[in-house]
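Design a sequence for this backbone.
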């Protein structure tokens, strides 16, 4: 068994595409496929389901993933120590987290600071993605934690035994517009121009719930953002293209500076940390214990 086989396995588990993973590993796709197959032969089991796209880990692949991650990490850290970089220091333990794009810019940096103040130095690997890909990353076993918004109207399809959660913060989805544009729009049309998330996206579903509440503005759709990234919607609102429902933490500075105004107070949301209970390394347990004691460390921005 060769180290490069483990690195190939981890690259394919992350990219879920043989061609993309081969490119990342700087080898041809046929050579990459042969190395993955060699690892499977050595282990005596199939690690990937090749009948679907993107490829997915088999049950055996999910079980092997954490071992491969830890083995590669320890080998490289031991090499660094033996070569004199950090000699005598213990390898820094780390955890893997996948998170909604918005939370990686608004919530995660400060949360990591508080976490490290509580448990000491810890490494972290973060995958910012959309909701469905975050769910897949957590469920397939490649990540220890998933950071997401939550509202009871949009339940998460996760087994609470396998994927328990802790509520670690609060935010609010609010409708905002460029300051001073409402009167102009209402003079031309009794309904406001709405910037809409893609159909079926997580923030799109939350927007539908918020839009159905009393006090929500009457709107007509003028733009659909297919990537459903709130930061992109914020830029559209700042340019005056319409109204959008955005997490308040994302646009608090714009509101305070007078660039945006609130059209409707919106929908309170929890910030939840979900954990893959099958991943039980000591550092994961340490982070999880600390996270449960950090429930709601920040004030509700409402």
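Sequence:
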């Amino acid at each position: 068994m060769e180290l490069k086989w483990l690195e190939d396995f981890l690259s394919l588990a992350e990219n879920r595409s043989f061609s993309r993973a081969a490119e990342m590993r700087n080898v041809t796709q046929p050579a990459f496929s042969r190395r993955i197959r060699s690892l499977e032969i050595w282990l005596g089991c199939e690690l990937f389901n090749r009948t679907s796209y993107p490829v997915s880990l088999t049950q055996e692949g999910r079980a092997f993933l954490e071992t491969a991650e830890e083995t590669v990490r320890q080998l490289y850290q031991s090499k660094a120590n033996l070569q004199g970089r950090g000699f005598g220091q213990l390898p820094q333990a780390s955890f893997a987290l996948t998170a909604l794009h918005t939370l990686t810019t608004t919530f995660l940096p400060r949360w990591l600071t508080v976490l490290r103040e509580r448990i000491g130095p810890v490494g972290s690997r973060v995958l910012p993605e959309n909701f469905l890909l975050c769910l897949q990353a957590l469920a397939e076993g490649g990540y220890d934690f998933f950071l997401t918004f939550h509202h009871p109207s949009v339940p998460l399809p996760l087994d609470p035994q396998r994927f328990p959660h802790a509520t670690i913060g609060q935010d609010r989805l609010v409708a905002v517009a460029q300051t001073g544009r409402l009167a102009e729009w209402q003079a031309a049309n009794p309904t406001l121009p709405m910037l809409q998330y893609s159909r079926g996206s997580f923030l799109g579903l939350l927007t539908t719930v918020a839009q159905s509440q009393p006090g929500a503005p009457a709107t007509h759709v003028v733009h659909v953002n297919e990537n459903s990234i709130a930061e992109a919607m914020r830029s559209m609102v700042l340019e005056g293209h319409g109204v959008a429902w955005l997490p308040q933490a994302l646009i608090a500075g714009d509101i305070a500076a007078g660039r945006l105004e609130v059209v409707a107070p919106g929908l309170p949301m929890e910030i939840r940390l979900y954990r893959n209970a099958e991943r039980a390394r000591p550092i994961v347990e340490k982070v999880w214990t600390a996270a449960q004691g950090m429930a709601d460390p920040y004030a509700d921005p409402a």
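The first helix runs from residue 3 to 15.
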